[in-house]
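Researcher: I'd like a candidate sequence for this fold, 626 residues long. If you have to choose between options at a position, lean toward the conservative one.
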């Protein structure tokens, strides 16, 4: 979801070890070992496809220049071939030639704040409670549902997922609980406390900017019941109201280098260090938020999306978070709820699978419980705030508030149709939506742009993502024709279907490990690792244009009527995430206010119009039934 640019590579660090795959239990281990390894695509194929991907987004002049660079790069015995051989050797020695490089360049060495720039949020359907009782009751049920999911991971009863009949890598499920990102001066690390001699048995609860350690298992190892958790949450609520403490969690919103300095300063104190470790080791965090200011229904979802992404700023709920924590559920007093997750350990689908499970679980009727045994008071995590730390908090507040002011986010529920309509026209729903995005962008700006859509590589061991490049020669032909009165309707339909088919083909190619982006990144990183000068191909204007994703998009499909959201990948771009339901589509569109050329509401308007115009085009020109 970031503008994934390979940044300079430091030497491999011992700090990266914790994200090596956890020692998986028996059944999963056998499943994982049965998965194929990620291939290194053929060099000539990637070079041809790279030139094809550039066609709709760079000028003819730039393309001519790049063609010459490509020819030079791929000539027999040339630099490209040497780097390719290096990658192939790397692939033979590793479980996945890409995964640790990707983790480092896309996440751990990325220095902008994780808030807005990296961590996605999820907006869940509004709950019907309006008070503290309802909030705590729902939060307790949600915690119990998440622990139920954890039991499936621990007992290996989580069903293996499949895509097109092929089993998928399940490793990410083992990374999302009991893990946390740790800031470092040049590179962060991720630690996971789910296994080992003493796996974590507590969660972190944060209310009124104060953190508590809540043990969620009884002495016999069974999880607490909803009723027991509810009582514990009430104790936390009452204790946290007595004092209004410094919002220590705000520190996690800062630029990674500044936060790394503040972190080292913070944990010099023994009490602070113990409190920070407790948060890092917890299974997950639950944030009990204050209600957000009342707004009209049409603005409500967008306001909640902002709450999920950044907490609303230092005056609202941003201090009620620890943004380095992999998983944070958010439940506010007014019924708004969702989560924010730190992106390094996992992509969206495992997070959403967990959410689907939890939301289903919260709908289950309460069981009659046996008499309650008294439970110990949850432990308040204390922090000693020195003048230096206070100063760090103030600086983080200022930076965060600028970021909050800058984020423009619009959640749109497109009510006219859902994925059933494109299916009825024998068009892939994802391709239909992506072509509509191309049309909306073209109508707004008069040109196509580099478009990122994430494709899952989970068919391969430890697979993460590659890029589906949605701006294609075919999509450009269609969007140029769509508003051209001189073009026949039937031709437009044909071009639309061809554009959707081109997207479908690129998607299939990407999930099979044959897309171009990670391969290009690998070749570049191989050059850095070999200490050879970076090939000219990667210093070229065309490469910069290709990697500048004005549209950073993702389909995150869920059973729950929710939507994921995240910030744009570039200062003058859009972040667009969507969940296509049967009869409607949930969209979250983000942009930065500091860019005069982008506007989330306007993009939403053009996208809605594009979807409706494309439907009309197909309906007015039905396919012959022959």
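Model: Candidate sequence:
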């Amino acid at each position: 979801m970031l503008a994934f640019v390979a940044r300079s590579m430091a030497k491999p660090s011992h700090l990266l070890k914790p994200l090596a795959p956890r020692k998986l239990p028996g059944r999963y281990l056998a499943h994982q070992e049965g998965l194929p390894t990620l291939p290194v695509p053929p060099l000539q194929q990637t070079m041809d496809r790279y030139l094809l991907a550039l066609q709709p987004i760079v000028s003819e002049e730039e393309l001519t220049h790049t063609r010459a660079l490509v020819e030079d790069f791929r000539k027999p015995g040339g630099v490209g071939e040497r780097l390719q051989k290096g990658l192939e050797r790397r692939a033979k020695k590793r479980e996945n030639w890409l995964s640790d490089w990707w983790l480092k360049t896309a996440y751990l060495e990325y220095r902008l704040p994780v808030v807005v720039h990296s961590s996605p949020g999820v907006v869940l359907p509004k709950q019907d409670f309006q008070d503290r009782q309802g909030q705590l009751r729902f939060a307790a049920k949600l915690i119990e549902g998440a622990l139920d999911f954890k039991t499936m991971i621990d007992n290996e009863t989580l069903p293996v997922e499949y895509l097109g009949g092929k089993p998928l890598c399940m490793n990410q499920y083992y990374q999302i609980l009991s893990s946390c990102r740790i800031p470092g001066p040049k590179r962060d690390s991720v630690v996971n406390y789910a296994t080992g001699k003493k796996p974590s048995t507590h969660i972190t609860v944060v209310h009124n900017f104060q953190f508590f350690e809540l043990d969620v298992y009884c002495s016999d190892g069974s999880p607490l019941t909803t009723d027991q958790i509810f009582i514990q949450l009430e104790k936390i609520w009452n204790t946290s109201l007595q004092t209004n403490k410094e919002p220590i969690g705000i520190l996690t919103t800062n630029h990674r280098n500044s936060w790394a300095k503040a972190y080292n300063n913070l944990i010099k104190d023994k009490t602070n260090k113990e409190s920070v470790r407790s948060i890092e080791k917890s299974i997950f965090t639950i944030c009990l938020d204050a209600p957000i200011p009342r707004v009209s229904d049409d603005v409500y979802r967008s306001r909640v999306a902002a709450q999920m992404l950044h907490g609303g700023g230092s005056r609202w709920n941003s201090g009620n978070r620890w943004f380095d924590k992999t998983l944070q559920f958010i439940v506010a007093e007014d019924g708004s709820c969702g989560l924010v997750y730190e992106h390094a350990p996992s992509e969206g689908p495992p997070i959403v699978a967990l959410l689907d499970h939890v939301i289903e679980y919260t709908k289950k009727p309460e069981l009659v419980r046996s008499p309650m045994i008294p439970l110990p008071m949850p432990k308040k995590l204390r922090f000693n705030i020195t003048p230096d730390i206070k100063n760090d908090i103030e600086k983080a507040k200022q930076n965060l508030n600028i970021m909050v002011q800058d984020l423009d986010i619009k959640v749109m529920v497109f009510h006219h149709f859902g994925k059933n309509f494109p299916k009825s026209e024998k068009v892939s729903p994802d391709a239909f939506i992506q072509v509509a995005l191309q049309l909306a962008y073209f109508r707004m700006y008069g040109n196509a742009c580099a478009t990122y859509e994430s494709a899952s590589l989970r068919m391969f061991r430890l697979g993460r993502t590659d890029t589906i490049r949605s701006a294609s020669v075919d999509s450009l032909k269609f969007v140029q024709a769509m508003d051209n009165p001189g073009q026949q309707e039937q031709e437009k339909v044909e071009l639309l279907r061809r554009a959707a088919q081109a997207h479908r083909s690129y998607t299939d190619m990407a999930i099979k490990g044959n897309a171009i982006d990670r391969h290009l990144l690998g070749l570049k990183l191989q050059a850095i690792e070999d200490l050879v000068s970076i090939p000219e191909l990667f210093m070229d204007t065309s490469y910069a244009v290709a990697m500048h994703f004005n549209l950073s998009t993702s389909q995150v499909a869920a059973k729950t009527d929710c939507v994921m959201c995240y910030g744009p990948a570039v200062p003058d771009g859009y972040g667009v995430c969507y969940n296509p339901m049967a009869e409607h589509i949930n969209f979250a569109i983000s942009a930065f206010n500091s860019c005069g050329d982008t506007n989330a509401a306007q993009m939403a308007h053009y996208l809605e119009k594009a979807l409706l115009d494309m439907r009309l085009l197909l309906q007015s020109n039905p396919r012959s039934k022959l």
